[in-house]
Amino acid sequence: MKNLIPILLAVVVLSSGCDQPSNCGVISHEGYDYSTVLIGDQCWFSENCRYLPEVSPYYERSRTSPYYYVYGYEGTDVTAAQATSNYATYGVLYNWSAVMTESICPSGWHIPSDEEFTELTDFLGGKSVAGFAMKSTSGWNSDGNGSNSSGWTGLPGGYCYSGGFYPDRGSKFYPDGNGSWWSASESGSYSWARKLYDDDDKVVRDDLSRIVGMSARCVRD
Asked: Among 89, 108, 127, 215, which has the minimal tally of Cβ within 10 Å of its Cβ?
């Protein structure tokens, strides 16, 4: 059955008018030009946020103050963190307080709500298959790549939690097993997020501790 998923998803995407993803223009913010993609009625960043006013080592964390991490980087020098290959590929990992700062998205854009993420996955055929359309065509562990038919280009940027970066593949700092993205919506003292995995084509909706450092995307107002 799993071999049929890409075929079924392709039919869903084609019938939804998303067979040829189009962009919404290049968006410049904080000295970086972001690529974008139109998916249904939503315009998304097609790469992770890179806003990095400061950087913290992985062992410093907070639920209430903004913290910024770059996967595999253990220092506090922003320039050095931005020079790493993980920053160039995956951008920044944010705790929830950091992802809710106004400067993370350009004017006219915002961190998506839980409902906006659901709109995205519904358009791509539902949460059980949407991950295949959202995952990049390369970079995922064990050939767990997607078709990226949506143009969302989801990469496995990993996460920072409990004094470390995960997954770490034997401390080599290869975040190639999963990707996680914050939403702006709260769930009690937690907040909602979406996850993609190398061994599954679904999109997982989960409410997580705000201490976790994860990736972020912006969507147009």
From this structure: 108
Residues 62, 67, 71, 74, CA torsion sign: negative
Residue in 24, 5, 18 with CA at minimum distance from that of residue 129: 5
Q: Which residues contact 3 (CB under 8 A, 6 or more apart)?
A: none
Measured CA distances, 135 to 81, 103, 163, 198, 201 (Å): 25, 26, 27, 9, 8
**CB count in 10 Å sphere of residue 104:** 25
Counting DSSP H helices and E strands in the chain, the numbers are 6, 13
| 11, 27 Cβ separation under 8 angstroms | no
* Cβ neighbour number for residue 97 with a 10 Å cutoff: 16
Which secondary structure element, helix H or strand E, spans residue 88, and what is its range? Answer: helix 85-90
Mean pLDDT of 77-88: 97
